[in-house]
Structures
1.
Amino acid sequence: MLQTEKKDYTLSSVRNALRILRRFSMDESELKITDLAKDLDLGKSTVSRLMSTLASEGFVEKNPDNQRYRLGLSILSLASVCTSNFEIHKEAMPVLHDLVEKTGETSHLAILDGLDVIYLHKVESKHHVRAFTHIGKRNPSYATSSGKVMLAFNDDHYVERTIERGLEPFTKNTISDPKKLMKALEEIRTNGYAISIEEIFEGVVSIASPVRDYTGQVIASVNIVGPMQRLNDRTIPPNIKKVIEAGKQISERLGYRPHHF
């Protein structure tokens, strides 16, 4: 009995330590123990012990200037191992660079993580005015071109879960009505691409196309994103073709052959 309780406690500690690590983001890169305890509904002493353990292994470190914690170098080492062995990451990089050269806009490779879209890779535009994004950035799938593409080619259950979570409006253009979202996803499946015009950030436009693996399943998306001054009625149509072609190129590099399916 005692052994079972000890095992449960150990698993709980591991789970809570992982929850703490996932709490860090680009928007909140440094956190206090009291804030972590409150956000995760854990005791302050529990968080303090877990942070001490994580710090001893290099996964977090304390900023001496403000006594807040931030992620440590051990996280960076693991991330490097992950990305260097991530096939889609390696195959997409040259295509994204080429897409940025052709369009002049920032490009991302994105996947779904839970009900959100997350950026795996980014190639920055050379323009001074550009959209602020970063690798690891999370956005709700229904409000982005990358997310909508992957939603459109996902199963109905996944779309239902997204709707059940709620379609929070971020701007006046956000699709917050389930029926309108379903219609938009149907159009994306027909057209093979998605556009987001000020759906999550005002003044920002993005275009995305699907990326398929060798079985034909959509596993990611590639996009470009920029300000409305550059992505407008005149420039969007030719850029759609370039984004679609980039999606096809990455898919082919992953082994996808359309005539096989």
2.
Amino acid sequence: MLSILTLNVQATSRRRADALLSWLSGRPEQIFLLTETSSGDGTAHLLDCFRRAGCQVHHPPLPGDRGTAMISRVPITVRPDITAGLSIPGRAVAATVHTDPLVTVLGVYVPSSDRAKAKVERKRAFVASLVTVIGDLTASERAHLVLGGDYNVIPRDHQPTYPGVWLPFEYDLFDALTAAGLTDVHDHLAPGVQQHSWFGRAGNGYRFDYLHVGTALRDRLRSGSYLQEPREQRLTDHAAVTLDLDLQVDALDVRPTSPVVEPATLF
């Protein structure tokens, strides 16, 4: 079984990093896609602890901006050739997982925006480049793709609808993913059930965080869920999203054995 979790870590401070580390180390998933990472001490500490515990960690440098990291407890081959086509390559990570069959995992942190022109165009460019990158994959790799992260958009059927808040290109991202053969894991496993992964100051809920799978993986989905614990425990301001795929993993790497934060006892 291959299990994946994505979580926005809200550019974790050094103080919150220890609590996040403890929570993540107790999770059973083999791959973590962490979004809104930063170049600060908190992200560095979190990732360094996983490295020292024997995990593969990939975190493209993106000075002065927020990015994405991948932590893997199973063997992976990093794929910078995929993320190089994005308008902001540091906002994504990609790797081939040594499963049978091989699976490609692409984690993204789509830029947020208000209605300032520069921010809208930055987001529009990233979304357009993401659609192009997915379209440029071979048919087989796209069919065996897991896409996940913080998309910073909501679909048209989202509840509440928030009319007038979103631009057409933001809704269009979901149409493009569907056209590429990607399935929203939550919608597939729990159709009609609205989830929220982030809440505004007024208590308004939004589903910003997602996992999608290609056509060859859809029938291998065994479970998936939104985990509110990280948000409720104030480890970050987002919920986590998970999936389990019925796939043979070539070789298991480290596994959690203790919630203790010390690196030597994480796994």
